[in-house]
Every structure is written in C-alpha cells, then in structure tokens.
Inverse folding.
C-alpha cells in the first residue's frame, strides 16, 4: 500500500513538473508548418493555437492561418489575416506576407493588386528569389514574357543553379522559339542521372521539343535523350517523334497502331512520312506528308519533312513551296514574340491579349490561344466567351502559301485541338 502511494505521488510530481516546463515556440512553429498540408486539421489547429500564445510568433501564426484559408480557396479571408503580418518588425516576415497577399490576389484574378504586392515584397527583401520567381510566373501566364524573363534572369544572376528559375527560363526561351538557348538551359537541369530521374515532365518535354526543332544540328543529343529520357515521356506522344528522329521506326509503328486516335491523324501522318524516309520508302513518305499538310496546314515540321521528301523526288516546285511555308511560319512566330515584348508589364488590358490569341490561332496553336483566353476571362468575361466561341467555330486554315495538292481538303473539318506549331 505504501509503495503504491509513493508511486502515485511521484507520478503527480512528474506531471506537475512537465506541465511547468514551457514549450519551445520554435518547435511549435515547426510542428504547425509540418501540419499545414496534413489532413489532420485538428492537430494543425491545436498547434496553431499554441503558437498564438507566444506574442513574438504572432506574425508567423497569422501567415500559417492565412495559408490554411488560401488552401481552402478563402482568399479574401486569407488576405485579411496576411495583412496583419505586414506590420511585423521583421522585414523578412513582411516580405513573405506581401508575397502571400500577391498570390491570393492572383488566384482571385486581381492582377494589378497582385503585381503591387509582389513589388512590395521585393522592396522589403530585394534578394528574395521566391517573390521574384512568382512574379515572373505571373507575368509569363499573362503574356508579359519579356518582363518574366527580366525577373527570372535576376534570380539566375544571384543563384545560377536555382532549379525553379532555370525551368522557368527554359520555358520562356521555348515560348519565344529560342530553341538553342532552351536546350542549353534545360540541359543544366538534366546533367546527372539523378537530375534526369527527378526532372519534371515539363522540363523533359521542353528539352526534347527544342532538340526536335533543331534536330539536324543535334543528332548526338537526340540519341542521348532517347536513351536516357524516353521513360520520362512514357505517356507523351512526343516520345514517338524522339524515337523516329533516332531512326527507330518499328516500335513506333506498333505504338501508333495501338494508341493513335482520330484527333491525332495529322501528327500520325507526319510521323509515318518521317518513318518512310528512314526506311527509304519515298512513295509512302510523299503519300503521308500530303495527308499531314492537309490536316495540319500550319505545322512547321510537316513542311520541313515535305522539303526533304520532294528534294528526294526531284520536284523543286514543292521544295520551294515547303520552304516558303516555313518562312511564313517563322514570320508568324516573330509576330507573336513581338507581341510578348510589346505587352510590357501591362496586366490589365484585354486588347493586347486578344492580339496574342489571334497570333496563336494564326500559327495553329489552339491550346496556346485558349490558355490566353483563360487569363482574359479574369479581365473581361464577355471577351473570353466571345473568343472561345470564335475558336470553337474555326475550321482548318489554308497553308500560308498554297500547296495545290490534287486531294481536296475535307470541307468543314474542325481545327484539331492539338498544338500544330510544336
């Protein structure tokens, strides 16, 4: 009995001592941060309430509470709470609060407010790469490619190995049709086997796309990419282009047979033309490239293949027509890139974005056109509805320079919802 009483007394004393030991606020902050994305909301809120008991961590608690609201798409409530942290005595916390406010305004489609707060964040902490990258990403999505480039380059000047900035810079080079620079930039993210294993699908696709656009100059890199990156493209039809560019036709023919859809007829015909060239079957190459051009009259690679095919048949007329169409596509690409420059840092006007939409349509890049229409929606809903209706009503355009094939274009054939200008 006495032993039991002693044990109980010791337990009570230990319990009292434990409750008297104050929690380490840094540990509570780390716990709350770890639980922010956890499905255990009760545990997160418990840690958050404990963090609020430490006056010196009031701002950190506000940022976490705001992020929780933002994760549940309650952006106005998040902004209100973030704003309390802008009065913190720590400039790094103030910078972070401004950045989070900007992100919420961007999610709300209030781009001018987002721009203001990203700039305020950089005023508080000019060396913050996260704010600069997020601002660059916003500019990019709004078509302000030149300004996006400026901020991405600033980050890379300070941190040449910043992987997020390198990926964004590669994407920007690709968007501006600067393929050699894109290859160099994406290549920095694909140096080691570990890099290649963990690279995002967008990096791998951007790298391979750039190689394919310049494949005559980069056969060695294409062979290496085919060997090391094909697995990363397992669900992307661009792997077929990569394999064919490396001379592999049999497996691609089988995959096309199993996986091709009616919507991919133009690309399939273009690939079959390339495969026929590899196999020195010029008759099949000519047959398929005609089908490809009829289905994708603004596709650069279709005309590039046509020039090769008709060079082999000795029909200079069609070689000249193919080269003339490639020149016109280059001109249309230059017009689009100039629009990306002319828009500057304007995040509020619909008109320059409508011009970008029409330039993308001119190139046959319907996904790119719709992507910009989605941003226009936040600025002018009626304009976005009108533009989407226009896109839905589109039929296939003619080639920039008439090709005069004997086959007639199927009447009323709808625009393929693929990017012709890859």
């Amino acid at each position: 009995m006495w032993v039991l009483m002693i044990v109980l007394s010791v337990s009570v004393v230990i319990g009292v001592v434990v409750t008297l030991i104050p929690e380490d606020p840094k540990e509570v902050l780390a716990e709350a941060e770890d639980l922010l994305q956890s499905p255990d909301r009760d545990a997160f809120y418990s840690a958050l309430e404990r963090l609020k008991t430490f006056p010196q961590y009031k701002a950190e608690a506000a940022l976490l509470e705001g992020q929780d609201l933002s994760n549940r798409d309650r952006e106005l409530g998040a902004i209100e709470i973030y704003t309390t942290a802008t009065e913190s005595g720590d400039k790094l916390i103030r910078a972070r609060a401004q950045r989070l406010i900007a992100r919420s305004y961007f999610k709300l489609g209030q781009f001018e407010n987002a721009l203001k707060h990203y700039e305020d964040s950089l005023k508080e902490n000019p060396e913050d790469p996260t704010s600069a990258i997020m601002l660059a990403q916003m500019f990019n999505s709004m078509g302000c490619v030149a300004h996006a480039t400026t901020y991405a380059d600033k980050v890379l000047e300070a941190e040449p190995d910043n992987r997020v900035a390198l990926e964004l810079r590669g994407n920007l080079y690709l968007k501006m049709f600067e393929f050699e620079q894109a290859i160099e930039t994406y290549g920095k993210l694909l140096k080691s086997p570990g890099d290649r294993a963990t690279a995002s699908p967008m990096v791998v696709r951007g790298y391979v796309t750039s190689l394919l656009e310049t494949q005559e100059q980069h056969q060695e890199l294409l062979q290496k990419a085919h060997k090391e990156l094909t697995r990363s493209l397992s669900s992307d039809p661009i792997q077929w282009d990569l394999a064919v560019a490396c001379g592999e036709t049999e497996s691609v023919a089988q995959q096309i047979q199993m996986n091709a859809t009616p919507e991919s007829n133009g690309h399939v015909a273009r690939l079959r033309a390339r495969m026929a060239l590899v196999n020195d079957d010029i008759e099949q190459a000519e047959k398929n490239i005609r089908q490809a051009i009829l289905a994708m009259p603004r596709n650069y690679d279709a005309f590039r293949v046509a020039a090769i095919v008709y060079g082999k048949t000795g029909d200079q007329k069609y070689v000249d027509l193919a080269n003339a169409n490639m020149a016109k596509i280059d001109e249309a690409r230059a017009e689009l890139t100039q629009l990306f420059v002319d828009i500057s840092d304007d995040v509020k006007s619909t008109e320059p974005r409508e011009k970008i939409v029409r330039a993308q349509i001119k190139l046959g890049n319907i996904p790119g056109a719709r992507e910009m229409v989605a941003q226009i929606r936040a600025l002018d809903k009626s304009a976005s509805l009108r533009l989407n209706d226009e896109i839905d009503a589109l039929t296939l355009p003619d080639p920039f320079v008439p090709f005069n094939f004997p086959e007639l274009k199927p009447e009323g054939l709808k625009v393929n919802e693929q990017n012709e200008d890859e």
In short: Confidence is low (pLDDT under 50) at residues 12-18, 406-417.
